[in-house]
Design goal:
single chain, 5-stranded parallel beta sheet, 4-stranded mixed beta sheet, 14 helices, 33% helix
């Protein structure tokens, strides 16, 4: 979306004349601003403000809601399954191209943990964030209404696996929300809640540095959150989380945020990949050894020339044989790469020179709940309220379009004046359930 947004600005005269066409293919008609997912799950931001509608943002582009199934680069054709493909007699759509931009991002990296597929909850898109919010609030309803102590204990225990950005921010925001919600239950107290964070390495939030990571760990443990380092999830069958330290934790909530992997579509393209499954790219954001194919973001292994200059080369490089290390798969690199990619494509179309991607690391920010956070930005270390404010200010500045920035800012302002919403809308996940029941029985379901 960032690449297309910049291209439609740079190529506006050509687009109006019909000399060029920009086609955007995505399974969803919107782009999700993932750093805001924890706040959407906690109710600090409306879910509709976490997403950016593609058709409104990209009025000069052709948006196709569909999923690319195959890419024949020799013929310059991509085969796309659209919503119409499922209809009788409708076949896949073939889209021809001159220049191809691959930016499918990443998907959750799961492991063959027994019970994970049945009971695990992901945290990669806005639908999962909404579902997790509803699920957590439903557990409070279950705990409040049951007389079975085992059911109550399992409902009030929340297990998060993965101590990176997604895991820590999701846990911190939802813990904040759940403890706040307890004040509206006559038989629940905040101290009844049990939050458990499982991390396989020896620290959390490695992106913010060792010192800030230790502070975040102390902050979480001060809030009575059980953080288990150098520990793995062995199984979660029958809603019981069994850890590698031998402990067992009955829990009705298990959130999996233990890393990501490149999108599987890359394996079907025949393009050169690294050992980690990312597209092997040059510093100009071209796919290595392939003409007219570009890539950026989590799916692209782009040489980090800034890290090489600063002596941070790990000797592995983008092809495993040395050279500059890969850029980390994060939003900071993805947004900047996308803009340069658009500039390079525009330069190629105009017969100009392309530029190399170079970006000095700005730092990292992370939220630990309302008014709490950690940050390591341009060498300065912040914690508590200043870090939380920095987190919000930074991400607000990166949200695309003024319209979306204004909506998010207005919502933050209003949330400071009114109480937090604690309504669960779990029926959204099965909106036709009540109608189907009424249709099958011939009457409305009785009110309980």
């Amino acid at each position: 979306m960032y690449t297309a947004l910049r291209l439609q600005r740079k190529l506006k005269p050509q687009l109006r004349r019909g000399d060029v066409q920009i086609v955007v293919v995505d399974p969803e008609p919107y782009m999700t601003y993932q750093p805001f997912l924890p706040e959407a799950a906690a109710g600090s931001i409306s879910p509709r403000h976490v997403v950016v509608p593609l058709r409104r943002t990209l009025p000069d582009c052709q948006v196709i809601v569909g999923e690319v199934k195959t890419i024949d680069h020799a013929e310059r054709v991509a085969t796309v399954d659209t919503l119409a493909t499922a209809e009788e007699g409708a076949g896949p759509l073939e889209v021809s191209y001159t220049e191809l931009v691959l930016a499918p991002g990443s998907v959750s990296r799961t492991l063959p943990v027994p019970g994970l597929a049945e009971h695990g909850i992901g945290f990669k898109n806005v639908e999962e964030a909404i579902g997790l919010r509803n699920h957590v609030l439903e557990q409070l309803d279950i705990a409040s209404s049951t007389r079975d102590p085992d059911v109550r204990d399992a409902a009030l225990r929340f297990v998060f696996v993965g101590g990176g950005y997604a895991g820590v921010e999701a846990l911190a925001e939802l813990e904040d929300m759940a403890r706040y919600a307890c004040r509206y239950y006559h038989n629940l107290k905040p101290e009844d809640l049990r939050f458990l964070l499982v991390e396989a390495s020896d620290r959390i939030l490695p992106e913010v540095g060792e010192e800030m990571g230790r502070y975040a760990l102390r902050e979480l443990r001060t809030r009575n959150i059980d953080v288990r380092l150098e520990t793995r999830l062995e199984s979660c069958e029958k809603r019981v989380a069994v850890l590698s330290d031998g402990s067992s934790h009955p829990a009705r909530t298990l959130v999996w945020t233990a890393g990501v992997k490149p999108h599987p579509i890359l394996g079907t393209t025949g393009l050169p990949l690294t050992a980690r499954g990312r597209l092997r790219c040059t510093a100009e954001l071209r796919v290595h050894g392939t003409e007219h194919v570009w890539a950026a973001g989590d799916a692209a292994a782009v040489p980090d020339l800034a890290a090489e200059r600063n002596g941070n080369d790990d000797g592995r490089g983008v092809n495993g044989t040395g050279g500059a290390p890969e850029c980390a798969p994060n939003a900071q690199h993805a947004v900047r790469q996308a803009r340069l990619l658009a500039d390079n494509i525009a330069a190629v179309l105009d017969g100009g020179e392309v530029a190399e991607y170079r970006h000095a690391y700005a730092g990292s920010v992370a939220s630990l709940g309302l008014h709490k956070g950690v940050a390591h930005v341009y060498g300065r270390k912040l914690k508590g309220y200043p870090a939380w404010f920095m987190h919000r200010a930074y991400h607000l500045s990166r949200v695309p379009t003024f319209n979306r920035k204004a909506r998010v800012l207005a919502e933050w302002t209003l949330s400071g004046l009114f109480k937090r919403e604690i309504v669960s809308l779990g029926s959204l996940e099965h909106p036709r359930a009540e109608f189907e029941l009424a249709a099958n029985t011939g009457r409305r379901p009785e009110a309980s």
